[in-house]
Design goal:
The complex is a heterodimer of chains A (447) and B (253). By secondary structure, chain A is an alpha/beta fold. Chain A contains eleven helices and 21 strands. In chain A, the strands form two sheets. In chain A, strands 1, 4, 5, 7, 8, 10, 12, 14, 16, 18 and 20 form an eleven-stranded mixed sheet that branches. Chain A has a ten-stranded mixed sheet with strand order 3-2-6-9-11-13-15-17-19-21, with helices on both faces. A six-stranded mixed sheet of chain B has the order 6-9-10-3-11-12, sandwiched between helices. Chain B has a four-stranded antiparallel sheet with strand order 2-1-4-5. Classes of the chains: A alpha/beta (447), B alpha/beta (253).
Chain lengths: 447, 253
């Protein structure tokens, strides 16, 4: 590696041969064909700038100033079971999958018993055990529409893989822990996540991303979710990357008729983070719920782009995104809904609310509704404000100091997103993290 | 207990209180009546330290201490309590958490030990009973999904739990049916004793049938234009405010 920094694209094109060498047998897998194709595509693309409409408010130049090393090119960092303990959400039963720098750890994962035919594993492992299955879905997988998700396709060697056959129910939630860490190198972690939920199946996933140590890294994720007819999928992302890291994820869901999909997106960390959360409603009578909570302080930037594509009639989508921004942090929200001509009787709702805790915090929020059908109900609303003074006065008038009053109001504000989570233990742990990440006095509902 | 001298206050630059003088002693219940916009709620908010109200003149002594040297929470810890006309909803915070936090802040201020969970629960049960309140309201979020009557009862419950010296009731009767009104008034009457004092702000005389005042004051255009005993309230109910206000207008013009 030369001491001179290369521009990002040249860098990622140039390190491919050394990455390829480290793959060993992996370079013969059909996945490698996808990688090479994506690399060629990357060569023709550019990383977005503020001139791109979709990235207008999100300056990613700090990210592009780094030459991140694909994690698969390096020796794996090892963790013990005790060391990962503190990153886990506790007090409920779950299947556990652990990824270190985007690579599945068989030792740390505890999958446990599953219904017949179900697979919960790492993508690389699964592609050896079930090549046909993986091939079927990776072929269908996501449109590569920017340099980041193309970069993911070029370098991904592993990721979450969940397959639930028709009619099967995964009773316990699947907790997936992505730990990113390198003591000496700035790494590129590129999980490629794939979830396939068969017809009439049911699965709930909690995917959390955490950084260990202070070293910066780039977590660049693509998640594809194939949701079968009448299936129910809950997918909850909790992002707690470290302060010097960058986090970008594209989540693409394909929903078949009668399916219910709940996506929860809780953003706590990273210097710059960006989500593209897209769903295509490919069948009738589907339900899509997006719940988001984004927190930022210091000079972090958090960007959520959501997109619901109503392609078929009689579908419902509902979106609630709430943000709390402190210090000089910045938020971006762009909520796009398309109701195509065929999608009559669509109900689509969207709400974005942001609280600014400091005068220097800022949010750019934009709803984007494109409606081509005539018999639809759609609404959207965005509010930006401060904590309510009358409420603060009410609390203080009971003898409670201002600082705690503010914390209570922060908890109250976050509540309607936190409440939507179905696991009680998770709610209280998330509430705890809200105060931890904002450096504020914690409010606990305890007696 | 409370001495108000020539108190003037404004909201958003508009003068609302134009010089109020009032002396309230321990054991007394005073009622402030007056038409809409006379400044009744402003008085309650100024006394409890709502930052949206600006004190422009005068002074208030609370148990010998200058009230305006204290922020809202300190006033509460010194024993002042306002039962709000429109209690605030706080989703995500249970009534128990809210009340216990408040009680412990007040205890801390007086160098007292924190209340234990056991003590807290038994006290809460006892007080809830007095107000016919459902026991499991403790785990519900503060005022969320409460009816108007439940919210007002919850205010009185907070009063009973926090044991203030001086209580302001701001239009506590508004939105209450007769049964709820009785329950709320009963809570107040149980608490009322020779060591505490009340200032009841109300538009109608109705509440004063249940919480019988020692003194009644008529507030108009930010000043007390008439004071009397409890019979003044009946007179107001019968004749309205005009008979007091008109001579006052004549004096002005």
């Amino acid at each position: 590696m030369s001491g001179e920094l290369k521009n990002s694209k040249d860098w990622y094109l140039s390190v491919f041969p050394s990455f390829e060498k480290k793959l060993n047998g992996g370079s013969k897998s059909f996945l490698h064909g996808i990688r090479k194709e994506a690399l060629a595509q990357l060569a023709e693309m550019s990383f977005p700038t503020l001139r791109n409409e979709d990235w207008k408010y999100t300056d990613i130049s700090p990210l592009l100033k780094n030459n991140f090393i694909p994690a698969a090119s390096l020796e794996q960092v090892s963790f013990t079971g005790n060391e990962i303990e503190k990153y886990l959400f506790k007090d409920f039963d779950f299947h556990l999958l652990v990824f270190i720098n985007g690579v599945y750890s068989t030792e740390l994962s505890k999958v446990g018993a599953l219904p017949k035919g179900a697979v919960i594993s790492g993508l690389s492992k699964a592609s050896k055990e079930n090549p046909e299955l993986i091939r079927r879905y990776t072929g269908k997988s996501t449109v590569r529409d920017n340099a980041f998700n193309t970069l993911n396709a070029a370098y991904a060697v592993d990721g979450l893989f969940i397959y639930v056959p028709d009619g099967k129910i995964i009773e316990k939630p699947v907790q997936v822990l992505f730990i990113n860490s390198s003591p000496d190198k700035e790494i590129l972690s590129v999980p490629k996540n794939l979830l396939v939920a068969g017809n009439d199946s049911n699965v709930s996933v909690i995917a959390s991303y955490a950084g260990s140590g202070k070293n910066g890294y780039f977590s660049n994720i693509v998640s594809d979710l194939f949701i079968g007819e009448r299936a129910t999928v809950d997918f909850c992302k909790i992002q707690e990357e470290n302060d010097n890291s960058y986090h970008i994820e594209k989540v693409q869901a394909y929903q078949q008729k009668g399916s219910v999909y709940n996506h929860f997106n809780i953003m706590f960390g990273a210097a710059i983070s960006r989500n593209d959360i897209n769903s295509v409603l490919e069948g009738e009578n589907t339900e899509t719920h997006y719940y988001g909570l984004y927190l930022a302080n210091g000079n972090r930037l958090v960007d959520n782009h959501t997109f619901v594509d109503h392609a078929k009639p009689n579908c419902m989508s509902n979106e609630l995104y709430k943000g709390i921004l402190d210090d000089e942090s910045r938020g971006v929200f762009n909520g796009k809904i398309i109701v195509r001509q065929d999608a009559q009787k669509t109900n689509a709702y969207q709400k974005n609310k942001t609280i600014l805790l400091s005068k220097k915090a800022k949010i750019d929020t934009k709803p984007q509704l494109e409606i081509f059908a005539d018999d639809v109900k759609c609404s959207h609303g965005a509010t930006v404000g401060q904590l309510d003074e009358e409420s603060e006065f009410y609390i203080r008038s009971r003898g409670i100091p201002q600082e705690i009053a503010k914390s209570m109001l922060i908890r109250a504000f976050a509540n309607d997103v936190v409440e939507t989570l179905k696991i009680d233990a998770l709610k209280e742990q998330l509430n705890h993290k809200i105060f931890e990440h904002l450096n504020r006095v914690e409010i606990e509902n305890k007696l | 207990m409370l001495t108000i001298k020539n108190l003037k206050a404004s909201v958003a630059g508009k003068e609302i209180l134009n010089g109020i003088d009032l002396e309230i002693k321990a054991g007394e219940v005073h009622a402030i009546m007056g038409p809409n916009g006379s400044g009744k709620s402003t008085l309650a908010n100024v006394l409890t330290g709502n930052a949206n109200y600006e004190v422009t003149g005068g002074e208030v002594l609370f148990c010998g201490k200058n009230l305006f040297d204290m922020n809202s929470e300190t006033r509460a810890r010194e024993g002042m309590f306002l039962a709000f006309q429109y209690p605030i909803e706080i989703p995500g915070i249970s009534n128990a958490t809210f009340l216990k936090t408040a009680m412990n802040e007040i205890r801390k201020y007086h160098d007292q030990a924190e209340i234990t969970s056991k003590e807290f629960i038994s006290l809460l049960k006892e007080k809830s009973k007095l107000l016919n309140m459902d026991e499991n309201m403790v785990s519900r979020y503060v005022n969320v999904g409460f009816s108007g009557g439940e919210k007002k009862r919850n205010e009185i419950l907070q009063m009973l739990m926090l044991e203030p010296k001086f209580v302001l009731l701001d239009e506590t009767d508004s939105g209450l049916d007769i049964d709820a009104l009785r329950i709320v008034a009963n809570g107040v009457n149980i608490y009322r004793n020779s060591g505490n004092a009340f200032l009841v702000v109300t538009h109608y005389q109705r509440l004063l049938n249940y919480i019988v005042p020692d003194f009644v004051h008529v507030l108009y255009k930010g000043r007390i234009i008439k004071s009397g005993g409890k019979e003044l309230a009946f007179e107001l109910e019968e004749k309205g405010y005009d008979w007091i206000i008109n001579p006052e207008l004549e004096k002005v013009f």
